[in-house]
Amino acid sequence: MMKHSRWLGFLLIDLALVLIFAVSGRQQHEHGLSVLGILQTAAPFMAALVIATLITVPVETHSRLWPQGVLVWILTVGMGMALRVWTGATAEVPFIVVATLVLGLFLMGRRLITGRILRRSMRHTSA
């Protein structure tokens, strides 16, 4: 049960990071910070993140950088952009570049940090 609750916790952190991405982007471009506006920006990427996470067998791989972390990142950006366009929003090249870089930093950074913490805690419990 611990593994299931752990990966769900990490998924919630990843979803919060996507929400931070949406809020900061809307704030930078002065689009307003209404709940509906934030959700319109974040929802395609949040849905894509959930799908990508489930595809990569999260119970065992929630903190791996390669290949699961990279796959989650690329699928989140790719499917998120596709969902944006499908729902009538735009996906201009500068937005794609910024989203790719920021989500990469957030999603890969989280995995780097939690992977290090988990390895350190495993060393302490086995010592």
UniProtKB/TrEMBL annotation:
Cross-referenced InterPro entries: DUF3054
Pfam families tied to this protein: DUF3054
Keywords per UniProt: Membrane, Transmembrane, Transmembrane helix
Residue ranges of the TM segments: 35-57, 69-87, 93-113
Protein name: DUF3054 domain-containing protein
